Amino acid sequence: MQTEARVGVVVEGGGQRALNSGHVDGGARKFSQQQQQPLHQQSQIGTVSQLLAGGVAGALSKTCTAPLARLTILFQVQGMHSDVVTLPKASIWQEASRIVGEEGFRAFWKGNLVTIAHRLPYSSVNFYAYEHYKKLLKMIPGLESRRENMGADICVHFVAGGLAGITAASVTYPLDLVRTRLAAQTNVIYYRGIWHALQTISKEEGILGLYKGLGATLLGVGPSIAISFSVYETLRSFWKLHRPGDSTVLVSLTCGSLSGIASSTATFPLDLVRRRKQLEGAGGRPHVYTTGLFGTFRHITRTEGLRGLYRGILPEYYKVVPGVGICFMTYETLKKLLADITDRS
């Protein structure tokens, strides 16, 4: 979720414009002028092309980092149905070896089809909602986009991105839950696919069962975007002011990766609770957490300690850096390709 939110605001949503419109010193103005042409091209490819580029970029990024994403989920749910004292101290390499030995190499991509099915509409809704929320916010007196009003411009992008992330997460949440349950399956296969999982969950747990963990998800989307957006823009502004000649791609990739690490560190406990809530009652298992979101936090810290809230953080770190890089590069490449096609037609 952290990567999706960050890409939705910084890359897909046009976070560069918020930065470019706010600087008043010479170095920043020069950088802003250099960026005007690419931004003009971006607006020329059209909404459909932008949605397509964002969806494909997100799907490719998720597919490439699927093994690390599955390892993260498996570590996150450790201790949910087991005594923490008896849990083996498995490393990433040991868990990866176990998956290959017991389930086969293809098991690293278990649940990836539903991930792609989730990523395409998520990116589309996120992008569409972001642009509309931004227009609505700019109609509020005092939030109009003006070069001298950097604070208002950043506020618009910040709030619009947060609302877009919440909207997209709410609309596509059942697919996110199904993806978690498919990825968490090891040797015992209870859900045979996307449609079977949706039917089984609805039948056994009711329609609301498809929204287990939504509260933790929505609570995580806001802080995740806030942290990643702030870190990204601050680092990127500092870098371009002091080294304006460096490659824009290099700057964006580096700052985006660092913002992802910061965001993941801050919001990982919410993501862990979200995953565990999504698995409540899966496969007919008894419920573990029955006291709500904050009760779940207390239960985990009491039984597993504070470290229990960060189970799986290492594969999450390893996933963030290439995930942002692949998504950014794919998105920018597709935008240029689609812009060229549009110009020729």
UniProtKB/TrEMBL annotation:
InterPro entries on file: MCP (IPR002067), MCP_dom_sf (IPR023395), MCP_transmembrane (IPR018108)
CC terms in the record's Gene Ontology section: membrane
Membrane topology: Multi-pass membrane protein
Major location category of this protein: membrane
GO BP: any one term: transmembrane transport
Source species, domain of life: Eukaryota
Pfam family, one: Mito_carr
Keyword tags: Membrane, Repeat, Transmembrane, Transport
Solcar repeats: 45-136, 152-238, 247-337
Location of the protein in the cell: Membrane
PANTHER family: SOLUTE CARRIER FAMILY 25 (PTHR24089)
Similarity comment: family membership: Belongs to the mitochondrial carrier (TC 2.A.29) family.
Protein name (record): Mitochondrial substrate carrier family protein B-like
Organism lineage: Eukaryota, Viridiplantae, Streptophyta, Embryophyta, Tracheophyta
